[in-house]
Amino acid sequence: MDNHSVAVMIHMMTLIASITSDGEIQQSNCRSPQYLEMGREGVVECSHGQTVYGYYWYDTTDSSRNQPIIRNEDGSKSGRGYAAGEYDIQNDGSLVIKSVSFDHDRVYKLLTAKRQFGETSEEDVTVIVTVRPDEDFPLIDQCSGDVSCFAQLSPQTAMRCIVSNSRPAINLTWSLLTSDGPQDVSFTSRVLPSEQLFTSEASIDEIPFHGNSLLLLECKQKRDELPSLLTETATVLIQNRDLALTIPPGAQTITRYLKEGSSPQLPCVYKENTIAMAWKRVDSGTLAAKTRQRVFKMSEDVRLSPEGFLILPDINLRDEGVYICSTNDGESEYNVVYHVHTYALPVQPHSLIDVCGTRKVCSSVHEAGDVLSCKVEGSRPFVNLTWSIRTSNGDLTMDSEGTVNNQSDGLFSSSETTTFPNLNTSFAVLSCTPYVVGDVFELQESLLLVELVGRRPSFKTPPITKWFERDTDGELSCSDGVYTFWKRRTASANDSVAFAVNGGIYPMNTTDQNERFHMRTHGTLVLNSVLVEDEGIYMCVFGDGFTESATMYDLKVFAVPSPPHLVVEGCEQQSYCVLERPSDGSVVCSVHGIRPEVKLTWTIRSGTENGATFVNHTVVRSINGETYDISLHSYLRAGRTAEKITIQCKAVGPHPELFDLSSTLDVYFTGGVMNGNSNMALFSLLLIPLAITVVSIVIFIKVKCKKRRETSGISGKDEVDWVGEGSSMLDRNDTSMDQQLEDFVLELRNKYSRWCANVHLVPGGGRQQQQSIDQIYVDNGLNVSGSHNQSSAGSLRSYEDLFRLEVKRVLVEADAGYGKSSMVLKAADDWCKLKDGSPLKEVHIFILLQMKSLKDITSFYGAIVKSLLPNDTKFTAPMIERLMKKRKVVVGLDGFDEYPERGKETDFKNILSGDMLQEVQVVLLTRTDCLPTTLDSRTRHFRLSEFSDGARQNYIHKSVEGHQVTAVSELLEKFSVSSIINNLLRVPLFFTMFVHLTNELRSAETIVSTTSLLELFMKIFEKRLKEKEGRDLSMEHIALLSKTALEGVEGEGIAWPKHSLLRRLGEGCFTDFVHIGILVEEEEDENESVIERNLGVTNSTRYVKFTHKIICEWYAARCLVKYLEKSKFVRGYERHLRKLNPFELQYLYKFACGMSPVAAKRIIQYLERGVNGHEFALLCQVEETGQIETITEDIKKICKESVSFFEPSSRLQRASKVQLLEIASQLEIPIKSVFFDRCYAFFEEFPDSLGMQSGGIRIPPLATLKELEIYSPGHKMTKEECNNILTFASKCDALVELRLSKTLQPMVMGGDGLRAIRAKTIGCTLMWLPENDKLTYLLEQDTGKWKFYRKELPIGRDFLETVKNRLEDLDYLDEKYYKGTLEGGRIEKNSDSGSEETDLLNPIKIEVERESTGV
């Protein structure tokens, strides 16, 4: 049988076998067509998953007349194609073509036999041979072979994209790329064959700009077309050439003044839906362009940031011009036009007055008619200068002439000359004020204090004599005015010392000597380390520009002798001694190193009745430079039968108030008086044992009485000395008051030094985690507390400034853990070390009382004895009271909120109300939620700031070293804490714990809530017991401490006497928690007397508390959760919740929600039923889930309405709202409006945040905030506050409107805040509504001036009367400034008004146009 017959037979068998038992043909297993690439090995895939006997491939559809090119029968391959090496077959039946050629472009047939004589099937597969084109992307004729490009073309320009030498032909399409996806555009296509290959084209006849200047076109293979021969699409960003050098109509226009030499960025809106953008300069064309995939630079002089901002490196005059940014989303276009000007700052940041050189302020002598000149050199643009005379009613402008010269380098020099006028005063202050049009940059004014030749101030009183001790600081008081000027005339100098102008104080640093002189507020001259050579006449002249007054002092210097007492030969004691003499003789009294010179006298106090007298007085006098040594030698005659004579040496002179020097002597004459008296000797022997017994009893009684006095609360003024009169006199005369002061200060410094030397970085961390307060303290400044002060001005940059205040009562408030104790401890450290530059260096006595340890003590002086001095001290409360009189004393009362007796009548209550220690500066430190109810009305209130980002970094670099700094930073970045957790880390104590527990925290997972962060802290603490003692902390102990904590926060108090807590917890539990740092035991007194302790008369009661109130709340929450989970009735668990004020215990509520879903559900329901509890309940919900997304919808509802903050609302409610707004901003949820209702405050350390007056709450910039209104009736905004508000607004990306309602504004707004507003991408309208919406002013951002906004309102006489009446009701409106006229519908400024710097309505001319109806 021939081969043909075999083929026919097989074919017939296939047809028969292909019919299955149910009469259906088997499904095909091959895809058709299949694409194989020319020149490569190709596989025609026909995979069969089941067992097959044979595969038969034919290169034709007619298998009946042809043999298979390759077959695989039962694993054996054969066939002509196989033998020739052209084909192969895979085990699954797929055909392998070893090298694909055009001949393989055909239809193949596969015959499949499942069994040798069983079921068969056949399938046809079309194979198409493909050839990839020359490039992997279409070539756009404008792109010069690049896959994407930028081109400037006219709308009528034709464009074409080509794919060459492909097989098969490729179907190309053009699309317009938009934010909503590709859009079809009109184009034509054609295909050009060339032998076996094809060239495809797609052409656009007209570019569809549709009024835009930009569009992004894409050319690609038609979607879903096979085969896919192109790997990339080609794009072209086209700019309309016809619009390239024009300014688009309706574009936002911004004028920018940029500093020469800087590299500024010009912002442009580049959002998620932006498809393309381009920057161009009107006079030179396109500079750069950008799509999502690529940046195109046409100029090497600029750079483009990833955000699309144009960067102008090292900008100079050549870069001035008009820059346009166009952003396009494919359908619409947004344009921003920048008018860029450069400015150059002069070398000096102020104007230069010729007689001052480069100094900003100076003084000189002139007469009427002298010509004065002022200049600014090297600026661009030029600077206008104005000469004026400063007065209390504002500056009086002087006639002057100015010139401006254009330098060759494009810079200007401006000068202004004036003639000094004839004035009625002896001094005058002239100012040369620079002003740049448009507020391009700010220069400071220069001031000249002129002393007029031939004019002398009048003195109403003769010179006042003032004595100062040598080498101490002295003060000469004066009044302040527009100017205050100090001159002196001494033996060695006749010069100016210092002067002040408008509160600014300027030393005259012409010599090193004058650097010791400086002025304080109110004109007071301070002399540092007064020297004898400073003696002379000092003159203070002060005036207001119209009148002046003068005060004169005759300064004299005295020197305290050394030693500071009289010296009597034979006496070791200072003020009293006993001398024994056999008979008459000489007595010598001396004083050394005294100034001025004094006289010494001897007087007989008793003994004159026996004829005692002094004869032959001789004075020895010597001069040692500036002081005198004086000795008085006198001969004392005892008289007739004298056994004892009392005599006194005393220093007298013309100034008895300077010295109180005297020494009293009892002189016993022993010439035979006691010889042979055996009875007296016997009596003496009997008296000695009796005296020893009496002294022992007296000492024991004294100790017991001391304890009874201090624990009974007897105040210092009621205390009595329980030692008898005779011995007390000897005690008092034992040492001088100065020696007593020295001993007292030494005992205080010993106590404070121990406190300051060992500060725990982490509670319970052991000595390896201790440092001195000086090593770790970070000074974060203080803000004025709005709780009691309407103005936020007066923030302090440093804790040291507290002690420079002239007030006697200062209150510092903050939440627990914010560093109140650390701050006052640092002050104590400065006092102990006599730190240079510290105001405490001048303080004689610094008292620091930790009030938590003063249980049952109500006496101030008793508290000092009990808590600060060693138990064997010689000082009693009356002695301390005497020492503190007439000395400079500072008292720190730390932890008033923890004082156990604060509800009672105590000395401390009298101190705070100003009824005690009136001349002593008292600094009270307490928690914000526990302020005293009775305070002196003059008390200044401050609030400790939270840890700012700068303070955090400062602490990290100060307290850790080397690689640990990097480790801490990496950990913070790893956790990437949200605003929820960040609130806890703003507390300095917890941030320091975070820093010093870095190694333990490294392995932690991401922290999602405050509960998870505290849980992490607590686990680290609790595992310390395992590390130190090899055992776990008992769960029973944890439960016991948790119950104690809950009872404490429910009202029992969170500080316990040690003995009481020991009984409650048991020694084992107590010791464990103290050991690991959860509980803190008060420091033992190392100076406690061993004798007193052994006698059982020790009076110390130590207290124990949690390391921090928040940690106490953690353990209390653990116990509360158990109550909430077990209680079956609402009334049962709410009994506990009603005892827990969420305003004071917010973390307890948060922790309980984070610990248990059951507790969270009940707590949230309880909070929702309370007043204004919704916001806090949402934050508790986040604690439960650890996911902010659970409250997203609630936040959206809140943000759809205006979010208000007002002063009477609770601190918790405001803080909760702020956190929700921060979350909204992070989640890009639009915030409709924020309204500040009489609660705005400026926090200096957070210049881009808005603060609130009480509680230290602030709002950081909110990217999604749209409107902001600050309503603050009568609040006079300072320039710093205005700059703060504008800076905040500039960082709120979506803000479009800022309203200032009923505030009092500066006449011109300026500073960095306004410049940032100008640079804001989205325009923001700034409005001022001084009274109501009928009087509205808009801020001209280019000039910084307020302009009246003319609304379309029906204006008539009734309305004008209303406006006039409303204006006259305002506090700031005074007749001398304004007059109201109704004629012409105008209310205008009085031409005779005073200073142009007067705030509020002065710069505004209120014009109201009447309607054309003729009202």
Question: What this model shows, in words?
Answer:
The protein starts with a helix and ends in an 8-residue tail after the last strand. The protein is built from 31 helices and 76 strands. The chain has 1415 residues and is of the alpha+beta class. Helix content is 25%, strand content 30%.
List keywords for this structure.
single chain; alpha+beta; six-stranded mixed β-sheet; disordered N terminus; disordered C terminus; seven-stranded mixed β-sheet; elongated; 1415 residues
Describe the structure in brief:
By secondary structure, the protein is of the alpha+beta class.
Would you spell out the secondary-structure blueprint of this structure?
Layout: H1 3-17, E1 34-37, E2 42-44, E3 54-58, E4 70-73, E5 76-78, H2 80-83, E6 87-89, E7 95-97, E8 106-113, E9 120-130, E10 139-140, E11 148-153, E12 159-166, E13 172-178, E14 181-184, E15 188-194, E16 197-204, E17 214-221, E18 234-240, E19 252-259, E20 265-266, E21 276-281, E22 285-291, E23 295-297, E24 303-304, E25 310-311, E26 321-328, E27 333-343, E28 352-353, E29 361-366, E30 371-379, E31 384-391, E32 394-397, E33 400-406, E34 412-419, E35 427-435, E36 446-452, E37 464-469, E38 474-476, E39 483-490, E40 494-501, E41 504-507, E42 517-519, E43 525-527, E44 536-543, E45 548-558, E46 567-568, E47 576-581, E48 585-594, E49 599-606, E50 613-624, E51 627-637, E52 644-652, E53 662-669, H3 678-712, H4 725-732, H5 737-757, E54 759-760, E55 770-771, H6 773-776, E56 782-784, E57 809-814, H7 820-833, E58 845-850, H8 860-868, H9 877-884, E59 889-894, H10 907-912, E60 921-927, E61 940-944, H11 949-959, H12 963-975, H13 979-985, H14 988-996, H15 998-1001, H16 1010-1022, H17 1024-1029, H18 1035-1052, E62 1055-1057, ...
Parallel strand pairs: 1-9, 11-18, 19-27, 29-36, 37-45, 47-53, 57-60, 57-61, 58-59, 59-60, 65-66, 66-70, 70-71, 71-72
Antiparallel strand pairs: 2-7, 3-4, 3-8, 4-5, 6-7, 8-9, 10-12, 12-16, 13-14, 13-17, 15-16, 17-18, 20-25, 21-22, 21-26, 22-23, 24-25, 26-27, 28-30, 30-34, 31-32, 31-35, 33-34, 35-36, 38-43, 39-40, 39-44, 40-41, 42-43, 44-45, 46-48, 48-51, 49-52, 50-51, 52-53, 54-55, 56-61, 62-64, 63-64, 67-68, ...
Helix pairs in contact: 5-7, 8-9, 18-22, 19-20, 22-24, 24-25, 24-26, 25-26, 27-28, 29-30
